[in-house]
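Hey, resending since the last one bounced:
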Amino acid sequence: MGNLTVPAFGIGQRALLVRTREGNILWDCVSLIDSDTVALIKALGGIYAIAISHPHYYTSMVQWSQAFGGVPIRLHEDDREWVQRPDASVKFWQGDTYPLEHGLTLIRVGGHFPGFQVLHSAEAEHGDGALFTGDQPQVSPDRRYVSFMYSYPNFVPLDAASVRKIVSSVEPFSFAKLYGAWPTFVVQGNAKEALRRSAERYLQAFEGSPSMTYQTLNPQQKRSPR
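The structure tokens again:
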């Protein structure tokens, strides 16, 4: 189940209610929280935890937690500095993976933020698994590929080592679908193969030809210190 604000607010990202046979978790966060949405989620069994991919989506996470009795918000320790509203519900974890209940696992992939985390569900898609990624990997408009960015507003690509780290971090996990941060941004079918194929394409473009240096563009002008 996806939750989004209509009309779109800010960048228009969605949150996802990841449902399991034993309990639900709210993945990522939208800024607006209202009584109708809370009532709907409670009718579907409520939530036992919240997990958010990265600081750009922290927004009203404490209010979401309080609406469901102060459920824990699972964030990675490496992004602690970006929490603007400390609260007892915010629980930090360390390391590379953190198992949650009911076949769910948080995986730190880094890159876009040091503590960027994705969520894996082993039960999803009839046991074939699903990966919930928020902004990273980012689902491409054709829904067949993903890509990788360090800074979206400034169009700064992610470095090659970080892309390799993302791929290796999720390698132990099976997933048939990959759910991104916007409605309809879902990689269908063998999403794990799509991720691998996307990373190869990205790295080939990133490393396959000599980079254009400042001196190449301006051979008569020296670089000034930055």
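The chain is about 20% helix and 25% strand.

Sorry for the duplicate.
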